[in-house]
Amino acid sequence: MIIKMVSSCFLCTALALSASAAFADVKLKGVSVPEEVTFSGHTMVLNGAGVRSRFFIDAYVAALYLPEVSTDADGILASGSPLDIRVVIISDLVTADRFAESAMDGFVRSTHGDLGPIRPQVETMIKTFRNSLSVGDVFDLVYNPDAGTEIYRNGELLEVVEGLDFRSAMAGIWLSDDPVQTSLREKMLGL
Known about the structure:
- Residues 27-190 form the Chalcone isomerase domain.
- This protein has 6 helices and 9 strands; from the N terminus they run H-E-E-E-E-E-H-E-H-H-E-E-E-H-H.
- It is α+β, with helices and mostly antiparallel strands.
- Helix 3 packs antiparallel against helix 4 and helix 3 (96-110) crosses helix 5.
- The longest helix is centred in the N-terminal third of the chain and has 21 residues, at 2-22.
């Protein structure tokens, strides 16, 4: 009887430890990437995360959160479901102007140069990046179907940009067929 109780306790402890490990945050370049996030009442799970590198410099950690895990980039881009793209600055070489320029380049790539229909929304988002940046700044680009794309910086809501087309183009910066970095796209898609 005692041996049976000890075996049961050991099994319960092992299951509890493995469950807590399954929900532990991921660490990338010293950045803790949570397994799930909640914004505007929408809980989303980590789909994948990676590091944006440019000219051999690690610029930021990017993570994709969705209601459920998916490797289908086209489906994610076409969907109207909630998503969060979290960007954590990890280099002091990432200035506000460089970050804004990189985002604009990403929009141009994502839309294949056809920014016309969403230009005002893109300019609104780019404007939010024009303030000084610091290592450790966290941007959450959250699509809330009830409001639009909510732009948070360090947990503070800065702006809401309406439009499903904008959501697709914004997510396309990282997930389109012409992303800012192919290896980062694969990591965010969990490939």
